[in-house]
Amino acid sequence: MPRAILIGPPGSGKSTVAKALGRALECEVVDTDVLVEKQAGKKISEIFIEDGEPTFRGMESTVVLSSITNCKGVLSLGGGSILDSKVQQALIETSSPVIYLEVSIAQAAPRVGFNKDRPLLMINPRQQWLSLMQVREPIYRRLATFTVTTDSKKPTAVAEEIAQLIEVDAT
């Protein structure tokens, strides 16, 4: 069972905050995007282009569900993984704290930029991000045990805030 599960949109800092939180909690860090890439033997953007989004989402769902069961440290989920109903149910049923990393478009845009490794944001990233958030934000909020904003904060400060929240929640 993970010590903490991080969810949020592209640019919220999930991967970076997960690493900082792993250091703070002295535990492993599992990033499901990295696991999908290892399993596929190629980058997520290549999976989207060569195999299509449905193939990627299927791989992602399998990896996320397994990680929710098997990870013992900090778990960082891909931004769209919460769209899968089985993943949503697993997050609702887990006793692990689920932390929604909230970020504004003003802060996310420079972080995401025109990153070709973010296939859903390649064309008009700002508008695409806003469209993604219309669908995803209510899901993030519903699944979250805690919401932590990452705007104008260093990853270590966000990690410290999360560590305090989950420590208090565990008592």
UniProtKB/TrEMBL annotation:
Its EC number is 2.7.1.71. One of its GO terms (cellular component) is cytosol. Pathway: Metabolic intermediate biosynthesis; chorismate biosynthesis; chorismate from D-erythrose 4-phosphate and phosphoenolpyruvate: step 5/7. Pfam families: SKI. The keyword Cell wall biogenesis/degradation does not apply. It catalyses: shikimate + ATP = 3-phosphoshikimate + ADP + H(+). PROSITE patterns: SHIKIMATE_KINASE (PS01128). GO terms for molecular function: ATP binding; shikimate kinase activity. One of its GO terms (biological process) is amino acid biosynthetic process. It is an enzyme of class 2 (transferase). Keywords: Amino-acid biosynthesis, Aromatic amino acid biosynthesis, ATP-binding, Kinase, Nucleotide-binding, Transferase. InterPro entries: P-loop_NTPase, Shikimate/glucono_kinase, Shikimate_kinase/TSH1, Shikimate_kinase_CS. Belongs to the shikimate kinase family. This is shikimate kinase.
